[in-house]
Amino acid sequence: MRNKFLYAGMIIASVWFVGCNSDSAVQEEEHEVHTVHEVHFSYDGETGPDYWGSLKEEWSTCNNGLEFTEVVEGELHQSPVDFETAMAAAPAYTLDYDKEVQFKMSNNGHTIIFNVEENSPKVHVIINGKDYELKQFHFHSASEHTQHEVHAAMEGHFVNVAEDGSIAVIGLFIDNVAGSENEALGSAFGFAIPEEGEENPNVITLNPSEMLPGGNVYSYSGSLTTPPCTEKVAWNVYETHIGLHEDKVRAFQEHYDHNFRPLTGLY
Ligand SMILES: [Zn+2]
Question: Phi and psi at residue 170, in whole multiples of 5°?
């Protein structure tokens, strides 16, 4: 995955809008439209995952990991990773997610994202005494993490940010189901998915705790799975899957059918 070449021509070619970092809640809050030439990333070809680290200097972590200058095996911590069942354990965090929270759904060109409204009640996760506030949740298809290298249909990421900027993500494996789905997740996707760069004007009220399956989680320190691939992200991914009705999975995939970063081998 390392030492990919630089596609200089492409860097000046694209016009982009909305923060390109779908995993950074901080940047997601800037919903401004950029009309200047800006680098963008994708999941295909010359702007795809193999090249993210070469597209922009600030994104070099995507190829190299944090400690590139003194790389030794095991010092890279790029997500996603494959999980083995044995790694899952009882959550070591305290969840304060059981509240009605207001969101708005938008399509940022990389994913469908539900941002917490400014005046909404806030929910938190506390890890090792540190308080992280939920800023947004968004989705990938197929899943980014795998279990024994098997992908789920989708993966949900609840992005929580502490006051010092550190990030904790709670992840959910989501299966495509024909029968009963997770009700809260189903209601989130009961709203029309907006076109790229647009927001659905409806305020969507959800209790985030109702989307979590409970049980064991895979916990590890990894990275954002989109540029700039920042490391030291506290990951907690539930072992148990939740379901989303196949019609809603299909509706999501009409917009994003492969917005997942493949396993990097950089861990
Ligand atoms: Zn994500």
Answer: -100, 125
